[in-house]
Amino acid sequence: MYTINQRAFGLLRICAISLVGCATVQMANATDSSAGRDRYRQEMAACDSPTVGSNRANCRREAENAYAEFKRGHLVNERNMSEYQINALRRCAVHKGDDRQDCEARIRGDANIDGSVESGGILRESVRIVPTK
Fold it and tell me: Which of 2, 3, 82, 100 is a plausible cystine mate for 76, CB 3.0–4.6 Å?
């Protein structure tokens, strides 16, 4: 049989575990929020660089829209796989065998990546040497 002290101690332990869990979630949200603000500041600073040229207003608008989506929770943080990566891996499903493995490797970053969105696109290149028969 449980005594009143044992029940109270058990209840106290459950409360303590719950509080630790809530504090952990709050810390993670605060970290994600500051990471989002930092990313926004970096993007706005990039918009002020001379390479942007006449597209400065568009660049700023895109940075503001991305930050708004981040605050709504529509952008996945970088520690997890983003929706972009998930969708890209799904597009690899149409390929079979080695082609599919190569496609997935390029998406995961196991390839040479060159270019940027600013320059018109990102090129992912992987080379596989096939032995002669």
Answer: 82
**Structural tokens at position 83:** 């929706």
In which band, very low, low, confident or very high, does the pLDDT at 128 lie, cut at 50, 70 and 90? Answer: confident
pLDDT band, residue 81 (cuts 50/70/90): low
The structure's pTM equals 0.36
CA dihedral 104, 109, 121, 65 (to 10 degrees): 100
Comparing 124 with 76, the larger pLDDT belongs to: 124
Return all residues near 41 (Cβ < 8 A) that are at least 6 apart: none
Report the alpha-carbon angle 71-76-80, nearest 5: 145
Judge whether 131 and 98 are in contact, CB under 8 Å. no
Instruction: Compute the distance between CA of residue 127 and CA of residue 92 in angstroms, rounded to an integer.
Output: 17
